[in-house]
What we know:
Blueprint: H1 3-41, E1 47-53, E2 61-67, E3 73-75, H2 79-86
Antiparallel strand pairs: 1-2, 2-3
Amino acid sequence: MSFRSSEKVAKNLFMASNRKVASLIEKKRKILKEIDDLQNNCEHLNKVVKSIKENEDSSTFVVRCVCEGCGKTIGIPTQQEIKKYLNGF
Length: 89
């Protein structure tokens, strides 16, 4: 295999990889929008206190009220709710 043909193969693999990444990013965007729509239309009837990541990229966890049905963070628990959660009740 000549240098030119191996260079062409590498370029084609790079372009195919870029298309795959772009496709996955688009799928992720659509899924996140669908989740957002479902969460915004949820009535949040059952809330639970949970420890969740502070944000997507964080390794820090915080205690929040979360809708049991859709998983959306819906508030900050009271001190009494936090104590109850930490004590396992």
